[in-house]
Task: inverse folding
């Protein structure tokens, strides 16, 4: 299988005043297309940092990251933005929806940046909301939705430009286990449809559904399996 | 720029302004004041200009008025005390100009006094009685509409005749043709030979409350003599002016290096004076407007910095879903331009109302040049861009991860 994601000795160092924080200290990771992966580890072990780098929100301080064979470390801001727009869909623990627009508009937002024509945009947004089980919540504002529903809107938004990779940082962190389970089923379905799904999580029931678990500790991969 | 993106940026800007209505309004105060001032000043001055121009056009172009005193005081080096000491202008000056002047079309004296003009028990009070010659109509560009004007013989033989202005006719002969009838001025009986064409008002004063008589006749009933006016119709104002100065300085024995002891007035000169005055006014007001626009701009910059900080998370999300830095920049720039534009529109509206008010109170013609509106819009656009660019760049430069982490 070809490597969609390949990291070699990736380090990420943050400068906090005088002190340096080594969030990642030499991470080697290979992920193939279509894999379903969970990233686990104690708080502060660098899970989010790793995810940000995979998602091209940030670049490594040291080491190499190749995405589909391309060297991300060499890219400028616009190129990274372009990759995020077309290849990556993000799902955040706190949803991060725009509060002043409806569910469908939130879902359509990435398509605006991707220059999708208006009519297609709305149609596709509605389809995606139907897919995540929100057919009757299309015109609701985020404040009128429950946590689980909001997270499903976020997933629909992540899917709107039909990305190759879905990255979720603690997607169930703010949900009870029943609702969380519902959200996980959507991720599972996406995996079955062939998407590469990577989920950062604390919860066992979430991590256990993945095909492969990457365990981080102190910015290093402790265990892969 | 893509239409979908533009619409989204517009929507987001409107939303941001709507959620902070009061804050946005207060922010635009400086812009409002600035634009209002610009519009009002330009409109009022241009209104005044039209009025002055149309008023003085009744005085006629190329007419010089040689007089003891200048029409407009002010300007550098004017010594009021010295002017008061000047010798009167009299008939000697008139004769000298008539004799030696070569660049004039016509020269005529205008000896002006205010007298009551009577017929029977009717009395037109305080009429401007002008003693002049047969050239008065050409110089003043005002002939008779009925009867005839003065002739050379009328002057030479000091005939007791007169020509009435329309206001005087209205008072003394409201229902009859006055020609051939008589009027009395200072007890002297004068036969009416004509009626002057109407001139209307000059700066709120009627120009038709006049009676014209031969200057020679006038000297028969005028008591104490005063300085007179000599009117000159010039081919070229500059040239004629120089010639008048040359002749009168010799006649009145003004030493070289000394100032003229007479004044050459003209509508051109007064318009020039007026323009100088309005220019000063203009510069002061534009200065005030400029200051408030800058203050307004700084207000916008401040509020945009607040807005960027408040929406750091949103910026992070937009970047995460693929927004380029340039797109974030455009979005915030559009917002600042819009805030500024709202101020501009309110300012244009207020400027319009203020001008209307001033022109109503001051009884002036209302005029708002299109370019003043264009200027108002351009100012607010420019301020929006200029003071919005720094906050917008700050938003664009945020790192996605930092922005998402922001609490
Ligand atoms: N912008 C930053 N500046 C300084 N230090 C940072 C920054 N971002 C992350 N860190 C540090 O890097 C380390 C890893 O952070 P990261 O957010 O990746 O941990 P995490 O595994 O996601 O933790 P959690 O489970 O609590 O979300 C932490 O010690 C954190 O304090
Ligand atoms: Mg984390």
Result:
């Amino acid at each position: 299988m070809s490597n969609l994601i390949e990291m070699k000795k990736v380090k990420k160092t943050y400068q906090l005043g005088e002190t340096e924080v080594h969030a990642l200290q030499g991470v080697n990771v290979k992920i193939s297309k279509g894999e379903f992966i969970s990233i686990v580890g104690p708080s502060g072990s660098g899970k989010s940092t790793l995810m940000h780098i995979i998602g091209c929100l940030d670049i490594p301080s040291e080491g190499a990251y190749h995405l589909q064979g391309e060297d991300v470390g060499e890219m400028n801001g616009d190129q990274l933005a372009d990759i995020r727009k077309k290849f990556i869909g993000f799902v955040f623990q706190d949803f991060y929806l725009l509060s002043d627009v409806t569910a469908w508009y939130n879902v359509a937002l990435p398509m605006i940046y991707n220059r999708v024509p208006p009519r297609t945009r709305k149609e596709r947004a509605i389809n995606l909301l139907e897919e995540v089980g929100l057919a009757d919540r299309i015109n609701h504002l985020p404040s009128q939705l429950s946590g689980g529903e909001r997270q499903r809107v976020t997933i629909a938004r992540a899917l709107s430009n039909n990305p190759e990779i879905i990255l979720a940082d603690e997607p169930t962190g703010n949900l009870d286990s029943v609702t969380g389970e519902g959200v996980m089923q959507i991720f599972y379905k996406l995996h079955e449809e062939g998407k590469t799904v990577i989920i950062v999580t604390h919860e066992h029931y979430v991590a256990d559904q993945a095909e492969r678990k990457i365990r981080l500790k102190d910015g290093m991969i402790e265990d892969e399996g | 720029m893509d239409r979908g993106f533009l619409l989204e940026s517009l929507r987001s800007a409107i939303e941001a302004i709507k959620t902070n209505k009061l804050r946005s309004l207060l922010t635009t105060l400086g812009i409002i004041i600035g634009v209002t001032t610009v519009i009002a000043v330009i409109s009022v001055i241009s209104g005044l200009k039209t009025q002055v121009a149309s008023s003085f056009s009744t005085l006629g172009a190329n007419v010089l008025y040689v007089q003891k005193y200048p029409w407009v005081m002010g300007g550098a080096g004017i010594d009021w005390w010295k002017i008061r000491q000047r010798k009167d202008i009299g008939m000697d000056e008139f004769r000298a100009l008539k004799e030696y002047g070569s660049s004039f079309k016509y020269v005529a004296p205008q000896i002006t006094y205010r007298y009551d003009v009577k017929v029977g028990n009717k009395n037109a009070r305080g009429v401007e009685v002008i003693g002049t010659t047969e050239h008065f109509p050409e110089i003043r560009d005002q002939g008779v509409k009925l009867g005839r004007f003065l002739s050379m013989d009328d002057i030479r033989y000091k005939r007791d005749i007169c020509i009435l202005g329309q206001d005087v006719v209205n008072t003394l002969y409201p229902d009859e043709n006055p020609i051939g009838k008589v009027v009395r001025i200072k007890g002297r009986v004068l036969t009416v030979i004509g009626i002057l064409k109407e001139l209307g008002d000059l700066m709120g004063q009627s120009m038709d409350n006049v009676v014209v008589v031969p200057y020679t006749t006038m000297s028969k009933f005028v008591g104490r003599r005063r300085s007179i006016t000599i009117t000159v119709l010039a081919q070229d104002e500059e040239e004629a002016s120089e010639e008048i100065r040359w002749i009168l300085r010799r006649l009145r024995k003004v030493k070289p290096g000394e100032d003229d002891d007479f004044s050459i007035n003209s509508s051109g000169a007064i318009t020039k004076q007026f323009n100088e005055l309005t220019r000063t006014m203009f510069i002061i007001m534009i200065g005030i407007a400029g200051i408030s626009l800058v203050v307004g701009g700084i207000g916008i910059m401040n509020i945009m910095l607040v807005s960027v900080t408040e929406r750091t998370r949103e910026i992070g999300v937009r970047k995460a879903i693929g927004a380029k830095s340039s797109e974030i920049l455009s979005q915030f720039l559009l917002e600042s331009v819009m805030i500024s534009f709202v101020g501009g529109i309110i300012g244009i509206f207020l400027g319009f109302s203020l001008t209307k008010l001033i022109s109503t109170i001051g009884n002036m013609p209302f005029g708002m040049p299109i370019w003043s509106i264009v200027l108002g819009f351009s100012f607010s656009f420019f301020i929006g861009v200029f003071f919005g660019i720094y906050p917008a760049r700050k938003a664009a430069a945020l790192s996605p991860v930092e922005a998402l982490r922001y609490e």
In short: Chain B touches chain A at residues 2, 4-5, 8, 11, 15, 19, 313-314, 316-327, 399-401, 404 (CB under 8 Å). The radius of gyration of chain B is 33 Å. The longest strand of chain B covers residues 104-119.
